[in-house]
Design goal:
Number of strands of chain B: 22
Radius of gyration of chain B: 29 Å
Low-confidence stretches of chain A: 1-10
Strand order of the largest sheet of chain B: 5-4-3-6-2-1-7-8
Low-confidence stretches of chain B: 245-251, 360-478
Shape of chain B: elongated
Distance between the termini of chain A: 57 Å
Structural class of chain A: alpha+beta
Oligomer: heterodimer
Number of domains of chain A: 3
Helix content of chain B: 40-55%
Radius of gyration of chain A: 25 Å
CATH class of the largest domain in chain A: Alpha Beta
Helix content of chain A: 10-25%
Number of helices of chain A: 6
Strand order of the largest sheet of chain A: 6-2-3-4-17-16-15-10
Number of helices of chain B: 23
Number of strands of chain A: 26
Largest sheet of chain A: 8 strands, antiparallel
Distance between the termini of chain B: 88 Å
Number of domains of chain B: 3
Shape of chain A: elongated
Chain lengths: ~375, ~675
């Protein structure tokens, strides 16, 4: 909870004692949000606010902000800012003991721990940007486990840069009884859906674009939490995710997510099931001999086997054969090895179903044993 | 009474003066050309007040007898041509017979001349076109013309003259360039206060460059020399009834074209074309055709808006070039434009490729690599190479610069095994990892170059790529491939520039452009092998095009398809991209195509497919290449440097930016005050 600064008295004060372990845990959790290459100096600082028996830490790069807290003995309530990287690096090296943080004059901050005594120069608290406040209404609870799964299975397909046709974010669609997440970079698309959930407060369809950076941050927060569920809310410009005591806010992406439903293949009729590990290993071997730029590998589907091959004028050529139960017409199609490996890595062990049609049409991959999640991965072929 | 009348001669002269005499420099040009046509070997130019007050040109040419001296000031009086046929094969610089009367009509002119065979000379004085005084006098042989108060009677023109210093600089650059074109003659240029240029005769062009510009400039230049027999291709044949008459005269030898001179290394970049000097048969010209050929030669080496320094002398049979285009004679027409264009482009390109110059390369490496040949153990083995080298020398003298390059490299490749031992003795640079031709690497070059050097100047002074300068080109332009392969990357600066070292010093490599260069050549290779790989889009990318882009797109759509694009028209002025070359991120494609189409639509020239192909490859390479601000692991950096070493032109990216900078050990030592 944000704490009002003690402004009543003339000079700002703050004095707290906090355990090193707890402070370091929160500092580490927020490091990802601290802007590294900022031109705005205040953004490389933490905001520390002490009130009650809590220390609230805030970091922001204006797109994302992360607010977290830890227990502290508050001697004097107040707030200060401290350079984030330096503080993190320093606290890491301190012995496991209590740390006393005290605001001095001219924004200097003293940090004492045992026999260690350091003074760091902060900046005026008023420079720190004001942050959006968690809305009180329209909060949806999403199971942490579901969100974790969905992010890890779509996040890798997000484009790195934004353009008219790709957004560097994922689309989350909430319906009263299902949640869907979709990500694409224009060449491939990852789509995961889970139904049978119950989302209170959602009526009809609630579509949200989550920026890539927020996805990454969210993933690490969800991974490290013990909380059962995540509280999600949004207003006109901001997304809010509350994970236990931590609150992640992100500026919303604006733009039209591509009409992904149009590209989901419907009549892919050449189906083959292979072991994911086997396929992944074969592709990795063969891809050593693929063109370094295009990473193209050739899939040759024949009766009883799947041949994977690659060749380049510089390195040579390579082929792997996997036995299958395929019984249809022969088909040759090229794919980017990296795209396939991304999927195989995310989908984990188990069978993988390859659903192909012809050398020009999108191929679809699905894990063979997905009962809880409907996970599909669409990848466009290459012409080689 | 009719309204039309013939203008009096002095008016006609003033009109002609408007065309010929634009500024003091044009006076100097006309008079210099007269002196050169008169066979002078010593020409002295004296300038005061930027030529506004005084221009005096003194030569030791053939001079004129009294009658000639007077006749010279009549309009269309000339000694240089006699009839209209001569006009087709003008071999002198002047021929129109307009310069002297024109100059005389707008200045106070004082002429002193004596022909060698006459005992006495003649003095003529003319003021604003009116003969003032003609008298005999004892004078030295040759001609001296003094122009005072230029434009004194045409105030309008006078007003348009620039500052004295500007006019002087025009004159200086003019005299300089005639001096460069005639290294066997003595040139002097004096202003009122100091000697601007004093250039005694020297043996060759490179000495003249050294004399005029100094060592630094010479180091920045690459010698070009090429020759190509002129075949009459694609010219209209005379009709059959006339053909016989021509054949009676015997099959005419079409002659040959020669180009020699200097072009700058890519890191020398000028913002305008003022440093491009082209001489055709000794005449300084400004010709769009040749300029375009030069731009083409530097394509993908220099960025599009900067220009190289070029000093190019073209020589071709007089019948092949028409100089009678404009009174100031700075324009010419070539009979075979395309042949000329391609010849210039290819010769310059070949020289650039061969030299593969390194930015900021100081002679240090080569200085030690080219210790005198007799000291190198390689020289003893040179006998074995001699035959090979002679073979290549023979091809060389056949004069085809393009064929020359690969042949020699092959012969060098043959020599390689024998040389490896010596190679390591001298340059601890390991033999290139890439296994590529050691085109100019270390000792091998020396062995062969020494042989070629011994032969070349006397036997075939014009041959192939051997520049008419005595030093080995390799010495000026040490090359890069083996050096690059020996680099050991240390790390990155700001995750954008790779720092690498070898024993020559510290190198900085721009990772984006380096990769761009690697990809560029690879894409071109894949394209020519028709082995382009492409990636289908998840959903078609709809591009909206401007009319200009649309026109370009239609024109190049086949080539785009060949490069792995698949696009369909999608309504008016929109296209749907369904497939794009592999390696480009989907979000980059839109950018890339817009850039490409814009670039090509700004091109004035009609496009040939090679250019388009190179443009497309450059665009694809640029967007597929690793970007700046991207951390690279050690092995990635090593890979990149090794790949770069294999490229044909590792020095500049396809858009012309430099790829590699070197801070030599010597520079480092100097900076630390150790030497």
């Amino acid at each position: 909870m944000p704490v009002e600064m003690a402004t009543a008295t003339g000079t700002a004060t703050m004095e707290i004692t906090v355990s090193k372990f707890e402070l370091l845990r929160e500092l580490t959790a927020t490091q990802g949000v601290v802007e590294r290459k900022t031109t705005i100096p205040i953004l490389s600082n933490y905001l520390f606010e002490a009130g009650g028996d809590k220390l609230v830490l805030t970091a922001t790069d204006l797109d994302l902000s992360l607010r977290t807290s830890c227990n502290a003995k508050v001697k004097k309530e107040g707030s200060c800012t401290i350079p984030a990287r330096k503080l993190h690096d320093y606290v890491k090296l301190l012995p496991d003991a209590d740390i006393t943080i005290k605001l001095l004059e001219n924004h200097w901050v003293s940090i004492r721990c045992g026999r260690s005594n350091t003074k760091m120069v902060g900046m005026a608290r008023s420079n720190f940007p004001s942050l959006p406040v968690f809305p009180t209404a329209g909060v949806v609870k999403i199971p942490a486990q579901v969100l974790r799964e969905m992010i890890s299975k779509t996040g890798f397909a997000i484009a790195n840069e934004e353009s008219r046709y790709t957004l560097n974010g994922a689309l989350m669609v909430l319906k009263p009884e299902s949640i869907t997440m979709v990500a694409t970079d224009g060449h491939r698309l990852a789509h995961i859906e889970r139904s049978g959930e119950k989302f209170d407060g959602v009526s009809g369809e609630m579509k949200t674009l989550i920026p890539k950076k927020a996805m990454d941050e969210l993933k690490s927060l969800v991974d490290s939490t013990e909380a059962e569920s995540i509280e999600f809310a949004r207003d006109e410009s901001t997304l809010y995710f509350r994970i236990g005591p931590r609150l992640l806010t992100s500026r919303q992406l604006t733009g039209q997510f591509p009409n992904f439903e149009a590209v989901l293949p419907k009549d892919n009729n050449k189906l083959v099931t292979v072991r994911g590990e086997e396929l992944s290993a074969a592709i990795q071997r063969v891809a050593q001999f693929a063109d370094e730029r295009s990473r193209a590998v050739r899939f040759r589907l024949e009766k009883g086997e799947l041949k994977i091959s690659a060749s380049s004028t510089e390195t040579g050529e390579s082929e792997d054969t996997i036995e299958t139960a395929y019984n249809g017409d022969a088909l040759t199609v090229g794919f980017n090895a990296v795209y396939l490996l991304d999927f195989l890595k995310a989908s984990g062990n188990g069978d993988v179903r390859l659903e192909l049609k012809d050398p020009q049409s999108a191929g679809q991959l699905r894990p063979g044993d997905s009962e809880e999640y409907k996970y599909r991965y669409i990848v466009m072929p290459m012409r080689i | 009474m009719g309204k039309i009348h013939v203008l009096p001669e002095h008016v006609a002269n003033k009109i002609a003066a408007g065309e010929v005499v634009e500024r003091p420099a044009s006076v100097v040009k006309e008079l210099l050309e007269n002196s050169l046509d008169a066979g002078s070997t010593r020409i002295k130019v004296q300038i005061e007040a930027g030529g506004k007050r005084l221009i005096q040109i003194t030569d030791n040419g053939c001079g004129m007898v009294r009658d000639d001296a007077l006749l010279a000031f009549e309009r269309h009086a000339t000694s240089k041509i006699k009839n209209v046929e001569d006009l087709l094969s003008v071999s002198t610089l002047g021929f129109r017979g307009e310069a002297l009367p024109s100059i005389a009509s707008v200045s106070r002119l004082h002429l002193e001349t004596r022909a060698a065979e006459e005992p006495t000379g003649t003095i003529v004085e003319i003021n604003g076109g009116k003969i003032f005084k003609v008298e005999e006098a004892g004078l030295p042989e040759g001609t001296s013309i003094t122009i005072r108060d230029l434009f004194f009677n045409t105030p309008a023109r006078k007003k348009f003259l620039k500052a004295e210093s500007t006019e002087l600089s025009h004159i200086a650059s003019l005299v300089t360039h005639y001096a460069l074109a005639h290294p066997d003659k003595h040139f002097e240029l004096h202003s009122a206060t100091n000697a601007v240029l004093v250039a005694p005769p020297v043996a060759g062009y490179s000495e003249r460059v050294y004399q005029v510009f100094g060592k630094d400039t010479l180091d920045q230049l690459i010698a070009v020399a090429a020759m190509q027999p002129l075949a009459h291709v694609g010219l209209p044949q005379p009709p059959p009834w006339r053909r016989e008459a021509e054949e009676d005269a015997g099959p005419r030898d079409p002659g040959e074209m020669r180009a020699h001179g200097f072009v700058s290394k890519p890191e020398t970049q000028k913002l305008n074309r003022n440093s491009i000097y082209v001489f055709v048969n000794g005449r300084l010209i400004r010709d769009r055709l040749i300029q375009h050929a030069l731009t083409e030669a530097y394509r993908n080496i220099l960025p599009p808006t900067v220009y190289p320094v070029v000093l190019l002398f073209l020589e071709l049979p007089t019948a092949e070039v028409d100089v009678n285009v404009h009174p100031s004679k700075t324009e010419v027409r070539f009979r075979q434009q395309t042949v000329m264009h391609d010849f210039v482009r290819d010769s310059v390109r070949a020289a650039l490729m061969k030299a593969r110059p390194v930015p900021q390369f100081i002679n240090e490496i080569s200085a030690h690599a080219s210790a005198s040949p007799s000291l190198t153990p390689g020289a003893q083995q040179a006998a074995a190479q001699l035959s090979v080298a002679q073979q290549s020398g023979a091809q060389f003298s056949e004069g085809n610069a393009h064929r020359f390059a690969p042949d020699t490299s092959e012969s060098r490749l043959l020599n390689q095994p024998a040389n490896i031992g010596d190679f390591q003795l001298h340059a601890p640079v390991p033999p290139s990892v890439s296994g590529r031709f050691q085109f100019d690497g270390g000792i091998q070059v020396e062995g062969n170059a020494a042989v070629a050097l011994a032969r070349a100047p006397q036997v075939v002074p014009w041959n192939g790529c051997t520049p008419p300068i005595p030093d080995e080109p390799e010495e000026i332009n040490p090359t890069l491939a083996p050096v690059l392969a020996s680099l050991k990357p240390l790390g990155q600066i700001r995750e954008s520039f790779i720092l690498a070292v070898n024993r020559e010093g510290l190198w900085i490599i721009d990772q984006h452009v380096a990769h761009e260069r690697v990809l560029f050549e690879k894409i071109l290779k894949q394209r020519s092998a028709e082995k382009v790989e492409s990636q289908r889009m998840l959903m078609p990318l709809i591009l909206e095009l401007t009319p200009a882009q649309q026109a370009v797109f239609t024109e190049i759509s086949d080539e785009l398809a060949g490069n792995g694009f698949e696009a369909e028209p999608f309504g008016t002025r929109s296209i749907a991209i369904k497939v794009a070359p592999a390696g480009i991120e989907a979000c980059d494609i839109e950018h890339m195509l817009h850039d490409l189409l814009d670039q090509i639509s700004h091109e004035e020239q009609i496009l040939n497919m090679d250019t388009v192909r190179a443009r497309i490859a450059a665009s694809v390479a640029c967007h597929a290449a690793i970007k700046v601000n991207m951390p690279l692991e050690q092995n990635k950096m090593e890979w990149l440097l090794a790949e770069l070493a294999k490229t044909d032109c590792p020095m500049s990216c396809p858009h012309g930016r430099p790829v590699v900078l070197r801070y030599s050990l010597k520079d480092i030592q100097k900076a630390f005050k150790r030497i």
